[in-house]
């Protein structure tokens, strides 16, 4: 009985703390117009406090706001806290939790040694007003509800919850492993795996709602996938399942693939509320209060992020949690203006009932050895759903693909702190997709005639079946009597295996088969395998590496191996790595394969990188393995001092993709590739011709971060030209629109070469005429000199 009163006293004590915390007033630190600078060494700060920045962004354009916090160890960008947040017009509020505050480089800031807080806008033209900085306590759970947040001792804490560290006496059994994931929702970004029994106090005999957040949201390319799980609360089953991997793949990994955004885009409603694996059960507290037991097929199966206890039937605490989560997500992920969508080549009304074919034909043209893209918008005067479609007719052996565009929320760039409504995710199966009067459905077609097709006019039909009937859309494909030259500069994507096929327990043959199919499909679009997925060349693994290089041989004049050398150096050291790469290079040359460039420097001027090890690396390789060709990715003007050290230099618009920069490197005998341009089609077409770069490669064919359809769950967003699917090597893969944009760019390049040669070989003259018209658009993100920005943004 005394134990029961002791547990009830703990709850009363926690509730009193909540009352005190809610009653604490916010303390204003600074206010006015930007930039704001406040010396933090004048105020005492604790981990349970938040820094709150509020204000208004005037005008009608979004802007970047930066919050910088230094401690006594801060010396540069990587050694301080930097929040770079996109703000949309109107009022904004940013909450920065001091508990778990880390530098950009990953180190914890010393709360007792904070020195300054700075708020500024990198764009001096942005108009922020009434900006205020406050110090406040976190809001608390209502009523007698109690929340427990599991994870590392220094993990950020969800408002109103109590931290449960690995050594907590509440953990009754298990060998816990703390987990900390990136993200802005502390309820689900930390937790324990390996926890088998957790005992929480609650008055004996009282009925209680037990809420559990049970899913590890993952990081990088890995989403934990326990296939057997059981969670019980005082003997009541809260969660139990047993799945095969294919079932888990369909039910969890791919569950967001066809999920569309709401009309205006709502990051909480559309995406984040589905995260975390929330389950709940109602039970009666026993002598020990609430006992939670976990079991399954692996430590991942015994994962738990958080637990909340509330009086049975009282939703106030759950409403509070969901409101706080939604506020954080909306503040961290504002929805900016929708991405522009290319104009439709035709607008097609879906027929009510079984209507006769439309009389108006849609025309498209292609060279004999080319291809063409058509963009159609399907309209309906009443809500209908698509059932399927079929392409018939056309010239013999026509390769014809049709995709439906989904309306999704995605980052406008991999490192963006905002979301944007896009229509870039294309699926081959349209079944179940709605078409409404206010939301037409975009359809993308790719028509690729057989190269020896006789010139002429060929009718074909796209037959669309919907719940309102069947619509036959006539299309005329005109094959010109033209044979285009091959592209002067090959163009492609960084290719790699589908991550979920590389996890333990998966058949290696399946991932190799999928990689081969990816290569073949991209080749049908005119794209080259410049950066194929290559295994780490470990000892006795020559056959696998050579087989992977051979897959790309027919599609690329040279191959850049992006990760193998870096992985091998990390595993074996420089000397062994140089010997192994020399062996693979020699063997590939004997077999007549494409030259291999091994990437060893990846954007060395970034704040989290270092150039200090490059000198030793280059010395070892040039001395012990001079035949090994080395590559570097360079993305900053200061990288020009390193550029001449490598055999292949990949440059982007951060380095400066100007014709002069490319020529300077080539005169020194180096190969130069462009990479990660902001305008893929223009770069693949005009950019490579004007700069005379040797190739252009864009990442990434397959780089999902944990959940492939959650853009907010990683340090960077998902970048996927080939979308993951349940089937290995489908007849038509689901893709990103950038894949078609790039393929059109290759066609542009070939047409420019054809027209120039037809006009008395004036290739250079024609290219520069086009370049003069388009270079401003191509270089849309000009390099900024940030040295003049306040407080030396991103500078030492």
UniProtKB/TrEMBL annotation:
It comes from the Bacteria. This is Uncharacterized protein.
